[in-house]
Please model this.
Amino acid sequence: MKTIKLLIAAFMLFTGQVIAAEQERWYSEDQVTQGEQLFGQNCASCHGQNAESTPNWKQTDADGNYPPPPLNGTAHTWHHDLKLLRRTIREGGAKIGGQMPGFEGSLSAAEIDSVIAFFQSKWPDEIYQRWSGRFASSDLPSLNDIVVASNRAITKLLRQRIGNAKIDDVTETSVEDVWQVQMGNRYVYLLDGGKYALMGDLVNLEDGRNLTEQSRRVAAVETISEFDDADLVIFDATGESRAVLNVFTDTSCPYCQKLHSEIDKLREAGITVRYFPYARGGSRGPGYQHLRSVWCAEDRNQAMTDAKNQLYDDLPPGDCTAAALVDRGYLAGNKIGISGTPALFKSNGEKIEGYRPYQELIPQILQ
Ligand code: HEC
Model:
């Protein structure tokens, strides 16, 4: 009976009908309870009692192996659909050089589902929704026969092939046997089990969607959402807010200054501008110190405007704790491939390159 219910739930998940029931999860409380026990017995020794793993799970050990990743929603596990999660647990990582043992003989299919239910119960709603949205949408068909246990093992394989480029993420694509590897803002596709790598954008010619661009946007949204409003300098829309524009800015950059001189036009059009600090050239860049001062100011908005108008005398010293946000902004910007300022991102992650006069910019943001 349980299995039947589960099958129905899984079916709904993959046909997209479940989207309406937002907080509903596919598993029952009973499964979580059973899963907790099984997890404690079979998985916790590697993945941690609450699936949290170790803090340094991103670092390889002396043999170049990765520690077991967290399964509690803080790592990549939500990039895998249910089928692939089941398969990973059944088959382990050995097939592609991973370390994880398979549980085919020791756990039944229902028990494996309970274990998944347990670690998914640790996922925050936001992550769970992303997961279910990702696999419920018709955009990503279920991943039929990809015989790969885990993306971390693929990462290792790739390292052996292409050396030490920093790999941020490896995900399945909707194309059979084609894997996407993210290295910063660059994307590479692996074909034929990692024998070939292809660089370029993956486009679905049936509907014209650029899947690589979609990934870039997801990455941008994720990076941007790591910052709270309190971390930023925000110029609210004057009336009702109709759109949000995220701007990586450098007080010393002429086009940033120009954009800022038009900020009231954006605000009047219902656009809320969220400024992220991005000092071109990093800590040696010309805007670095002034950005720190702005972030330390009691009235950051005024200080931002002063700095953009090159009125530096009124700025406070940039020696407070909030000044560390200037370094964070720089790292975040690099992660999403900013090459110059201002770098503009709409709330869906779409990037607008450089300065545009407000008459051009406003319709682009509101569309
Ligand atoms: C001996 C240590 C060990 C045990 C026990 C173990 N794992 Fe793993 N697990 C790993 C390692 C290491 C990886 C990374 C991939 C690899 O090397 O195979 C991994 C990867 C995974 C992944 C893929 C995660 C991702 O984000 O790609 C899942 C899911 C998973 N394990 C679930 C489980 C479950 C559920 C159990 C218990 C039934 C379990 N593991 C038991 C070591 C272990």
User: Anything to note?
Assistant: Residues 42-43, 45-47, 66, 68-69, 71, 75-77, 85, 88-89, 93, 98-101, 103, 115, 149-153 surround heme C (CB under 6 Å).
